[in-house]
Design brief:
single chain; 290 residues; mainly alpha; Farnesyl Diphosphate Synthase; two-stranded parallel sheet; globular
């Protein structure tokens, strides 16, 4: 019998940097997206729990997988997502990919280079966007734009939480070779203020992350669903603003999050810009067809 690990959720979708199944999404799809989010949150909380042994963490993740696949009903957090997948005829591929990342989190605390970090993002971040796109009936061609956006969001989170992740979990997602290139050390993350060498390395990582944004910016124009276009347009805009903050500020000693009012303002601007861009593209396509 698969062991059961039950812990309280560390945070909800309302506490995230980016909208999760906001009012922009079609009402019928909000709960399915939230079921995926809550499954991911449960897995994340198990992998990060400081009071659990490695054995118990793996057991908890195994319980989530067994419940998702219908082999057990022990992990309650997986039941709503299992129902969503069954009702909509979707395979469990994306949530299973997520579990690959969380299993890595149990034992892996360092990432040698950018390529290794992107391999982690392939399982920790990209499945989220792919699931949302599949749920909307979008083509797999849109993954080419969703994947870099989701990876960028993941790295943004790693940069924001780099000090906390090191102090609380002894986990460093920052590429070690990029730290060394600036003369920074992992131990520098324990300081209350980043040393110049660490600040330079953090800026380098933020700038490297910005390189993914041109592809990500194509996502709101590529999806068919109008509501999803607006939602992804907002997410792209927020990612750009957070990367600007991370380039200019020290995440160890300064605020590198947007306030709720700031998110609202940027969201409204992003929706207007996305709507205008889609109208312009539609006009252009019609004129070419004449």
């Amino acid at each position: 019998m698969t062991a059961v690990v039950t812990i309280g959720a560390s945070k909800t979708e309302r506490e995230e940097n980016f909208p999760v199944a906001s009012w922009l999404i079609a009402p019928a799809l909000r709960m399915p997206i939230l079921s995926f989010y809550r499954f991911a949150r449960a897995a994340d909380d198990i992998a990060d729990h400081r009071g659990l042994s490695e054995k118990d963490k793996f057991a908890g993740l195994e319980a989530l997988e067994a419940t998702l696949l219908g082999k057990s009903d022990s992990a309650k957090a997986a039941l709503p997502l299992r129902s969503v997948l069954a009702a909509r005829g979707l395979p469990p591929t994306h949530p299973l990919d997520l579990l690959t990342a969380f299993r890595a989190d149990v034992t892996k605390g360092r990432y040698a280079d950018w390529g290794e970090l992107m391999q982690y993002c392939r399982y920790s971040a990209m499945p989220v966007g792919r699931f949302v796109l599949d749920l909307h009936g979008e083509s797999e061609g849109t993954w080419a734009y969703s994947d870099p956006l989701c990876a960028a969001l993941q790295v943004i989170n790693h940069l924001q939480d780099c000090g906390k992740d090191y102090r609380a979990l002894d986990r460093v997602y920052l590429p070690l070779d990029m730290l060394r290139a600036r003369g920074a050390k992992v131990e520098d993350l324990a300081a209350v203020k980043a040393a110049p060498e660490l600040r330079a390395a953090l800026r380098d990582i933020a700038e490297k992350t910005k390189e993914m944004m041109p592809a990500a910016e194509k996502l709101p124009l590529s999806v068919k669903d109008w509501r999803l276009a607006l939602e992804t347009g907002v997410i792209v805009r927020l990612a750009q603003k957070l990367l600007a903050l991370l380039t200019a500020r020290d995440p160890l000693s300064e605020r590198v999050h947007l306030t709720k009012p700031e998110m609202a303002v940027q969201g409204l601007r992003a929706m207007a810009a996305t709507a205008a861009a889609r109208r312009t593209r539609a006009v252009s396509v019609r004129s070419q067809q004449r």
